[in-house]
Design brief:
seven-stranded antiparallel β-sheet; about 45% strand; about 290 residues; 1 helix
């Protein structure tokens, strides 16, 4: 376990569980749910990483450059491959100092996603900020489609308040079909600060890369900012759970197949020969 801390923020990183976070606190108060001490399942963590795609790939295949690509299921309880390869793997520590840590994972196409790549993450503490920088490197001579994001578990859905701006919805849990976006309905609009008073499993599009979570009971505020490829935000708030997830992601659910069908705006990135895609998501913590 890697621990980084300064006068305001403390995090713990587990290289053996997908380089995810086991702990994230601000001035001693938890920002994310605590991971059980003996946890061996990445889904129990405070936060896990999603590379080289977010959400699912329907039926485990997609067409790219005229070739049907197969992607095996990665969890028995999920009907489709979910959230990429890296969240269930062991990562290597590249470098570490008092305020940052960089870890890496090398993927071979025979072991899941059908392209070789190298993933890296750098966690950096700067005063009251946690920066999470994700990167994907394509070592192949062929272009590679991909996406990236993070999956944090925030505390206290009954007291937390949330605000962000989106222009449309890609998917909501009760939608019969979701092969195209539609304007964000008024009842799911978070442009004005509001409670999370509904059971959400919803992918919002047209996100401007900024969101604010406030915790009145803890007198704490969290500002989330994400760089330009993160135009989508997934809100997951199951009923009676003591957490909710707010996930900055680059791609929509089933984005590879939607893009292959000609749907515009799915967020799929393409990395050329020897290129690296690097983007940062920042959490800024402050007192209310």
């Amino acid at each position: 376990m890697i621990t980084l801390k300064n006068n305001e923020i403390e995090i713990q990183i587990n290289p053996d569980l997908g380089a995810g976070l086991h702990h994230f606190s601000f001035k001693g108060s938890d920002v994310l749910r605590q991971t059980p001490a003996a946890a061996e399942d990445p889904l129990q963590q405070s936060l896990f990483l999603m590379i080289p795609y977010c959400s699912y790939i329907k039926e485990g295949h997609f067409n790219y450059f005229g070739i049907n690509r197969r992607v095996p299921k990665n969890r028995p309880e999920f009907s489709d491959p979910m959230h990429g390869d890296v969240w269930q793997t062991k990562w290597q520590v590249e470098k570490q100092d008092a305020s940052s840590a960089t870890l890496s994972y090398i993927h071979k196409k025979e072991n899941g996603f059908p392209f070789d790549y190298k993933a890296m993450v750098t966690y950096t503490l700067i005063q009251n900020q946690l920066q999470i920088t994700l990167s994907i490197h394509n070592p192949s001579t062929l272009p590679m489609p991909c996406g990236m994001g993070i999956h944090p578990y925030f505390l206290h859905p009954e007291t937390a308040r949330l605000s962000f701006v989106s222009s449309h919805i890609w998917h909501h849990k009760n939608d019969p079909i979701f092969d195209r976006p539609y304007p964000t309905p008024a009842q799911w609009n978070f442009a004005k600060d509001r409670a999370i008073d509904e059971d959400f499993d919803t992918a919002f599009g047209g996100w401007d890369g900024h969101a604010i979570i406030t915790y009145p009971d803890q007198k704490m505020k969290l500002d989330i900012s994400a760089q330009d490829i993160f135009h989508h935000l997934v809100l997951y708030s199951p009923k009676k759970a003591d957490f909710f997830c707010l996930e900055p992601v680059s791609n929509t659910p089933d984005a590879f197949n939607l893009a292959a069908y000609g749907v515009i705006g799915t967020g799929i990135q393409s990395i050329g020969d020897g290129q690296t895609l690097t983007k940062t998501i920042t959490f800024t913590c402050s007192d209310l």
